[in-house]
Every structure is written in structure tokens, then in C-alpha cells.
Amino acid sequence: MARNKAFDEIEVLDKAVELFWTKGYNTTSANDLVDGLGLSRSSLYDTYGDKRSLFIKALKRYKHEFADAVITMFQETENVKETISTVLQLIIDQDCHAVNPKGCFIVNTATELSGTDPEIATIIDSNRQDFENAIENALKLGQQKGQISSKQDAKALARYFINTFFGLRVSIKANNNPKILKDIMTVSLSILD
Amino acid sequence: MARNKAFDEIEVLDKAVELFWTKGYNTTSANDLVDGLGLSRSSLYDTYGDKRSLFIKALKRYKHEFADAVITMFQETENVKETISTVLQLIIDQDCHAVNPKGCFIVNTATELSGTDPEIATIIDSNRQDFENAIENALKLGQQKGQISSKQDAKALARYFINTFFGLRVSIKANNNPKILKDIMTVSLSILD
DNA sequence: TTAATTAAGGAACGATTGTTCCAATAAATG
DNA sequence: CATTTATTGGAACAATCGTTCCTTAATTAA
């Protein structure tokens, strides 16, 4: 009866993630989207609704694609400290040689929009909560196994490490000198000794 | 010979700090500035130049008004751990009951602009460096006095604490629940024991 | 073929962006 | 007084913003 969609909605959404991740919400214009997604203005608005709707779809896509992968690492880990170390190193490697560090799409969005857009703030916070739960459970297991010290409360430690991740995303934008980042990583991890 | 300025340039600049601090650079429009500063459009451009110039003046003003005060605290401290604790508590108190946490003007600017504006990136980084030096020296003194452990390198520790400050600014925007923030503070400080 | 749907291109919308400029008024000094 | 500067308000600028809509072409299925 009718023509099929010529483009892969998910594929285009990934391009939107890339654009919003790099430039943020306000600085990414409708024209930037038309150019970057390779869609006509009409198809864009027909398929994804307005700019904000597309942004929220992109943000959720990022969460499922990137953030959830890290959460899974904590859910399946055999060694929490090792996993935390791996995640810190991933964050550093992603941006430490970049001219314009992208940081984390969710952290960027938290600073840009969570103060003014309650729906987006909810997404941000639920992500934070998911991380807290996953890391707390992983830490508890590690403490039971005697892999890490039991001096500190697991929940408090989880919150501490999330704060470390957040901080690293900002530190990288302030100065992505690998030596500085390595220092932060080493000291932050030593809390588990 | 001629009329005097009717408004205090510094006073107006402080209002600009407030506006840019709260809303960021891109979201603060020229009209917002006219309304918020209580100046006519013409006086505004006559006195401060264009929007970006005004923003940079406001950013530098913030640094000298707020950031430098904290740096001085570290330069004059008798007890580093106490001072770090005080600063962490100040950051928390500023925003933990706010509906829209403002965070730190410099951190906000780092995430919004340091990737795209080299001149602003320089201001951000020099501020970071000033903090690093002040905290490192304070930590070294504390180690010499035996007030804190000497296990860790002072410079690495300083970088770690700056990262903690940065993280806290983001954490507060993600969820400013005082319990979460207190956990972060307690665990972060325990590195000195 | 016909009908239905998708896509592209582009014109057009009103609103807002940052910025400039001009005319009028207010205050200070000579 | 006259002159100089400060300040205001508002008009106007071109550019861009997000968004809508219309026309035309392409593709699919009945």
C-alpha cells in the first residue's frame, strides 16, 4: 500500500546522540540536526516530533546504550575494585587525548538542563539511582568476599564513587592532562584499601 | 564638564555574575541582561562591550570574589583537613535546600564553554591550577605537622580534592539530597586518615 | 494502474537572537 | 549660560531560532 521508511530510525537517533552529546541541547540548532542527521526538515519533525522530544529520545538512547552497559559491568563483576578501576580508565581514555572532550552526555545534560526541565531532571536522577544501586550491591559482595575493606558503608562508598565519576567528567574538560587524571584515579581508588 | 556615571559598574557586574551564574551564557539573552542589570541596552553596550566581553568580566569578577576567597583559606589554614571539610560543607550548604541549585559559576562555565572558547578555557584552567597549588601547599604543611597521613603524594591529593569539589557541584544538580551529599563528604575526607 | 505513504526541498512563519544607532533628556563643569 | 558627557528609550538591523506547510517525487501494495 505504501512506501517504507528509507532510513533506520535508530541509526539516525544515534547521530542525534552524537550531536547533542558534543554540542549540548541549546547549542545544537534545528539546522545542525538537518545537516547532521541527513534528513530533511520535514522528515525530521514527522518522525521525532519537536527538538525537545528528539533530545529526550536521544538521552534515553544514550542511557540504554552506554550507561546501562556500565551498570551491567557492576552487576556481573567478580571484583568491584577492578571494575571501578576499569570504568575510571574508560572515562579517562575516552577524552584524555581529545581536543574537545565530550564528557558524558548525561552529566553534560545534568549541568545544562536538570535545573530547568523537571522531566529531564527525572531521567538524570533515575540514572544516578540505578548506578548507586548497582555499585552498592557490587561493593557489598566485595566486602563479603573480603576483597575490599569493610570499614566504610557500601551505600556511602557507592555515592562517593559516583561523585568521583562526575568529577572526572568535569576535570577532563578543565584540563585533560593524563597525569592529573591518573592522580585522581589512583587516590580515589585507594579508599578501598 | 560632564555628567557622572549614575550606576556603580561593579555593582552592575555583580548582577551580571548572578545572571550568568544562574542561567549560563547561552541561555542568558541580551534582554535578560537589560532587565536584570537595570541598565538600558545602550548603556550596557557602551560600558561593557558585547555579551561575551561582559561574560568574561563577570567570570573574572566571580573568580576574584569567590574562588580566590577559598584559595586564601587554604593559604592561611592551620589545619588542612578542617579547611577541606569547611569548603565541602560550604558547597553543600549553598545548594542542598535550593530548588534550582546554582552550583559553581566556574564549573558551570567549564562544562558549557571551555570546549569551544579557548580564552575562557584558559581562565578555567588557571583557576584550577591556583587551587591545585594552594591545596598542595596546605597539604604538605599538614603532613609536616603530622596532622594528616603522609602516605599519599600531596599534589595527587590536591588534584583528588579538586575532583571531589567538581563532582559535588554536579552531584548537587543531579540530586541535592543532604544525606547523599554528606556521604560523599565523609568518605572523601576519610582519605586523609 | 491506482491509492497510500514516505521523503525531500524549500518557502515561509513569527519570535527571538545580539547588536547598532539615533533622538531626547539629565546632570555635571566651564 | 553653554558645553560636554551620561543615560535613556526605542526603533531598527540582519541573522538565526524552532516550526509548519506545501509541492513534488519516490516507493510500495492492492
UniProtKB/TrEMBL annotation, chains A, B:
Keyword Nucleotide-binding: no
Annotated DNA-binding residue span(s): 29-48
Pfam family, one: TetR_C_13
Keyword Secreted annotated: no
Keywords carried by this UniProt record: DNA-binding, Transcription, Transcription regulation
Taxonomic superkingdom: Bacteria
UniProt cross-references to PROSITE patterns, sorted A to Z: HTH_TETR_2
InterPro entries, alphabetized: Homeodomain-like_sf, HTH_TetR, Tet_transcr_reg_TetR-rel_C_sf, TetR_C
HTH tetR-type domain: residues covered: 6-66
GO molecular function, one term: DNA binding
Protein name, as recorded: TetR/AcrR family transcriptional regulator
Originating species: Flavobacterium laiguense
